[in-house]
Write a structure and sequence with these properties.
Chain A: This is ABC transporter substrate-binding protein. The complex is a heterodimer. Chain A is an alpha/beta fold. Helices cover 40% and strands 19% of the residues of chain A. Among the domains of chain A are: 4-87 and 212-280 and 289-295, Periplasmic binding protein-like II (D-Maltodextrin-Binding Protein, domain 2), CATH 3.40.190; 90-210, Periplasmic binding protein-like II (D-Maltodextrin-Binding Protein, domain 2, 3-Layer(aba) Sandwich). Chain B is α/β, with parallel strands linked by helices. Chain B folds into 2 domains: 3-127, D-Maltodextrin-Binding Protein, domain 2 (3-Layer(aba) Sandwich); 132-189, Winged helix-like DNA-binding domain superfamily/Winged helix DNA-binding domain (Arc Repressor Mutant, subunit A, Orthogonal Bundle). A 5-stranded mixed beta sheet of chain B has the order 2-1-3-5-4, with helices on both faces. Classes of the chains: A alpha/beta, B alpha/beta.
Amino acid sequence: MSRETFRIGFLPLVDAALPILAHELGFAAEAGVEVQPVRDMTWATVRDRLLYGHTDAAHLIAPLAIATALGRDRPPVELAVPFVLGLNGNAVTFSTTLAKEVGLGATLGDPAAIGAALRSIAVARKPARPLRFGVVHRYSSHNYMLRYWLAGVGIRPDEDVEIVVTSPPFAADALAAGEVDGICVGEPWNSIAVDRGVGHIALATAQIWRRGVEKVLAMRTAIADDRRDAVLALIRALHKAAAHFVDPEAAEECAAILARSEYLDAPKDAVLRAITDRIRIVPGGNPLHYPDFMFQYREAANFPWRSQAAWLYSQMTRWDGLSYSPRDAATATDVFRPDLYRAALAGSAAPLPGASSKLEGGLEGPTGAGSVQGRLMLGSDRFFDGRAFDPDDIESYLSELP
Amino acid sequence: MRIAIIDTSAGRAAVISDGLREAGLDDLVIIEPAGPLAAQIEAAAPEVVLINLENPSRDQLEDFFTVSRALAKPIAMFVDQSDAEATGAAIDAGVSAYVVDGLSKQRIKPVVDLAVRRFQAFSRLQRELDEAKGALADRTAIDRAKAILMKRRQIDEPAAYALLRGQAMRTNRRIAEIAEAIITSEELMGDQP
């Protein structure tokens, strides 16, 4: 029997793991589909290949999927996100010079305290040469997480500092060359900056938002409709790959596969540290265990909550300087497709949330959540400033933000 | 119409600019890949930007287009849905194009079409060059192996070549592979009697 093939675009990042492992470890074949990973170096190219049919699906930064559906900077194309490839897994890394000035310690510090120290430096630097931060894309969660934190500690992202775009594999170089004073990128690129002695990790993005949506599996809606059965099989394959990826026994093997030249082309040790939530903060230091640095499976992490898309839309509105539009909010929210996720995993052991949207940032600690299948517990999903996001009242939320 | 070319391959940039010049489009700026991207684009103020699809600076470039206030008009991507076929062909060829918003399609199309043809021609050339390089490396290896055989076995060149060829035929391998094996063994054991 011939299996349907999904060519899946990806960037060399640890959170491209699930499609790669589904292919390498047979989860795709077991589900009756074939996955062909297609490696690129920029999100622009991953997106273009997806839109023009060079690929069938892509490992994509979630805000870019939404921006594409909304037609920001280009004609809109309908996209569907039936599966979240992971939460968090990024970090904010300072140059060693800035780290010294801010007084970063050998452990992950408090976001508010680091922010306060950073603020006085940003203000002092502003007249001559403002501090400059690199993010991986304008429409990336990295950009929104960094901006959320900066604004929350009183640093205006577009006025007090500069935020520029740096491709992940070149972020450590930009830091080393002094082109930027800090970066917010995914792994293993923070760890590589630390190992090269040019960076000091200031924060994990999980400290900014404990359960922040990160990469997603995106495809054209036309593909999701026309090849629905195969798409559902692909979701089952990725879900199995996720369960395997978080198994501590499998970490070594997963890291070895991902480190290969055709995937991340990065040192295995740096990849392994990210997978096992062990982060080396300072050059030469011992890796520190920070639980849930990356979050790929538990608590139905792969479920595409419509409220996550709504939060990203709220940040897009905030930083693109546009006013809230109910129509755009609906378009953005509709990109996330919990219906496909449920259809794929109904009848399996996976817990399926009953709701498709939730209050984001409202949980202090493990809380039982309504489910239509299995038992679902959700852990703390706090933002560092304690705010919560109600997807049904984006306007009030926006008006209360700094 | 000023056209900027950004390419990680200097050779391909030259092939494209030659083609554009031949077509009478000679207001060209080739962006230095090692230099600062934004500053160069800003200084050039192009109406059309051609960039290779796999260029690692594409995200940076798109961001610059979005935030830049220096350019007179915002630059939009060449993604007219009515012409998906042409855009698809460009992506297949590995070229991405950005144009100033409002530039008429009749003026842009020949530029992009030409860039696509040049990109394809360049890939073909690259392939041929790789093959030629491979052939040259094979020749060098075979010559060295022949010299080793001639010296060690005290035979003439035709006999040395016949030995290589015979071994290749018997083992179903390429003559160059046999030659490589002889060179390796000579390097490791050449000092043994």
